[in-house]
Design brief:
The protein is built from 17 helices and 17 strands. The chain has about 425 residues and is an alpha/beta fold. The protein has a five-stranded mixed sheet with strand order 4-7-8-12-11. The chain has a five-stranded parallel sheet with strand order 10-13-16-5-17. The chain has a three-stranded antiparallel sheet with strand order 1-3-2. The protein is elongated, with a radius of gyration of 28 Å.
Length: about 425
Amino acid sequence: MMAEAAVDEALDAQYVPPTPSSVEETGLGRGFLADLVIKIMYQEGSILGYELADRVRLPHAGVVEDVLSSLKKDQLCEVKGTGGIGRSGLGRAVYRYSITDKGRAVAREAMARSQYAGPAPVPLPAYNRGIRRQSLDDLTVHHSGLSRVLSHLVVDDQTTAHLGAAVNSRRSIFLFGPPGNGKTAIGESIGELVLRGSLFVPYAVETGNDVIKVFDAVNHSLVEEPSNGRNRYDHRWLRVQRPVITAGGELTLGELDLIYEQTSKYYEAPLQMKANGGMLLIDDFGRQQARPRDLLNRWIVPLEKRADYLTLHTGRKIEVPFDVLIVFATNLEPTDLVDEAFLRRIRHKIAIDNPTWDEYREIFRRECARQDVPYDEKGLAYLIKQHYIEENRPKRGCHPRDLIEQLKDIASYLGTEPALTKPLIDQACHTYFVDL
């Protein structure tokens, strides 16, 4: 555990975005920042200097103050007193700025170009440098760590070894096999191990005055900063846990490119860009509306080049890092999805098969303990003989959990204690299994 903590600290300390001290150091054009500030003032009517700095996530001194001076000079805003009780010593940061009629006209023109009025974005080159500085390449998985995160599952040593090698390769992983045997749970466990630590992601990225929103409160979990470290980095970036993003059968090809909002006139980053520095799990691969071949075609260049090429609505393409561990999980036969040439591009293909009887017994024992149902070897033997062997029914890793839950529901209705009795087992199986 001490070694793992040292790895976490090393990853966390790997990159810290420096705080800009001037407009030039933001990497953004003065006109872009002026538009952003005037749009916020247009929304608020009047606002204190330090409040405006908080909104754009840039220092007041040297940056926001400079932009406000330009806007005042152009008669787009004016000072209307001071405010900010309890903020003594902040100088011009407590000035209250109000937008003028001339400023409103300029703001409306700016809103017509783009309605983005959030934290100032970081320029695309800075984003690319930051993500590459926080790469997953320095992470190495060992047997002890992988076994620990898989301990809640019953996974044989050979499969564990295959998974460890696949993760350390930093290439794509293809998990396949019958449904209900834990492919998704294995993928999530890999994420728990590999994606320890944190990284910085920006609220948004700017390229050619276009804005791409990157931070996503659904997929990015904030890491609380120590009070003594808050001002040591550029606040246009947020420290988050390394993301683990899951996309299932609802995934479309459109979600893998920039999503342009026609009304707001700015972009939402695609899933793989939001997953940079982390893991993207494509669950139920082959069940999407898009053909598997088309989805894999979309990944060929990023997987080989470690770079992705995204298209703006104008047709211009931009390059962003592709630093993502991508895991495909499917219940379908690989050969039914794509041909050999495509499968060759996915380096590690790992079968997650039905459990052996010994593994099934261990899963069942664990589920009884977890769900507080007395484990009974004779009851399990009856279940196996009567409802698996005689029915020639394949066993799945999810069956113990589901059958015990089913049994408990029946016992609750009957007003009896849940137990592995023949009547309760028979009724649970009768209402659970469907022969297809």
